[in-house]
Amino acid sequence: MTVTQVRTEPTSRGEQVGAAQSAAPTPRRRPSHRARSALVAWAFVAPVVVYLALFYAFPLIRNIELSVRDYTVRSFIDGTAPFVGIDNYLAVFRDATFGPALLNTAAFTVLSIVFQFAIGLALAVFFFRRFPLSATLRALFLVPWLLPLLVSASTWSWMLNSESGVVNAFLEAVGAGQINWLTSPQFSLISVLIANIWIGVPFNLVILYSGLQSIPEEVYEAASLDGANGWQKFWRITFPLLRPVAAITLLLGLVYTLKVFDIIWIMTRGGPAESSTTFAIWSYRLGFGSTLPDFSPAAAVGNLLIVLAFVFGLLYIRMQRRLDPS
Q: 14 or 181, which is more confident?
């Protein structure tokens, strides 16, 4: 054996093992349990994120971009609208329609929510007594909510028609005289209010009735043993325990009512003399209701509605934190 051959051979068993390990392929590491859980979670969340980005975030960003530029029909197509900042918002605030539209929006929203909630709560408490045919009657009350808004608004337009409506026919039968429900500035907003309240009561009934079912019967039994009457049970037990459900019902009703367009447009088109024009109607008129649409002011009015809904949403979150400090 030569000296060169002795030097090239491994001198120990450890060196032989190390050489064999270095020659073997390195196995790939499998992802940890935490990493796999994160991938599964993102796989479930991804469709929701994509949906929100496409149908909520992008339209909102686009609407903001419309409101800070001066868009015309031509610039809307070729994308050459100049940047004007808050000029469109200032023009909206200075417009003569802003004041009546703001008052109409506030009156329409507040009165609708108050009457829808009050009537819905009264009906929920009434049907909670579980008398015969209560389920059937409760199902019939859902009909206004299930009908398309086009059908409901058209029906109310026919009923409140000044010449051939059944409401005026009834008023004449009792000697009260006719009322121009849809063509009078004094009654146009009341007309759309009646229709919107009629449509929104079933929603409040369903949500509040579900909230009543979550209240334990033992609480009412204990109150009866203590000598509480029906009115005391309602104010001391039902209403306080129903407060979280009532809060979300009012918030959803507020959001739905702020954006009501179909009923008002079909019944009065915002008239006469802007007497039933709300922000939703005004925004549509600016953007699509004329031969020369003003896309940028229409987007600005729409953003005002978004800001109002956002503010009330923050108020709801703050109220919920006060009710549930944990």
A: 181
Q: Show the tokens assigned to 222.
A: 């204990």
CB-CB neighbours of 180 under 10 Å? 17
For residue 279, give the nearest of 288, 271, 290, 270 by alpha carbon.
270
Q: 128 Cβ partners below 8 Å, 6+ apart? A: 209, 212, 213
3-state secondary structure of 215: coil
DSSP string computed for 13-55: HHHHHHHHHHHSPPPPPPPPHHHHHHHHHHHHHHHHHHHHIII
Rounded (10°) angle between helices 149-159 and 188-213: 130
List the chain domain ranges. 98-259
Q: What is the pTM of this model?
A: 0.82
Please tell me whether residue 82 adopts helix, strand or coil conformation: coil
**Quick one: average pLDDT of 304-317?**
87
pLDDT at 326 exceeding the cut of 70: no
**3-class SS at 83?**
strand
Adjacent-strand bridge partners of 83: 69
DSSP 131-162: -TTHHHHHHHTTHHHHS-HHHHHHHHHHHT-T
pLDDT tens-place string over residues 179-228: 999 999 999 999 999 999 999 999 999 999 999 998 888 888 888 888 88
Closest alpha carbon to 154 in 105, 201, 199: 199
Q: How far apart are alpha carbons 271 and 287 in whole angstroms? A: 17
Do the Cβ atoms of 182 and 157 come closer than 8 Å?
yes
CB 142 within 8 A of CB 206: yes
For 120-144, letters b (16+ CB in 10 Å) and e give bbebbbebbeeeeeeeeebeeeeeb
Q: Which CATH architecture has domain 98-259?
A: Orthogonal Bundle (1.10)
Please answer whether residues 199 and 193 qualify as being in contact, where contact means their C-beta atoms are separated by less than 8 angstroms.
no
- Please give the Cα distance from 171 to 160 (Å, whole number): 11
Measured between alpha carbons, how far is 109 from 115 in angstroms, rounded to an integer?
10
Give 135 or 254, the one with higher predicted confidence. 254
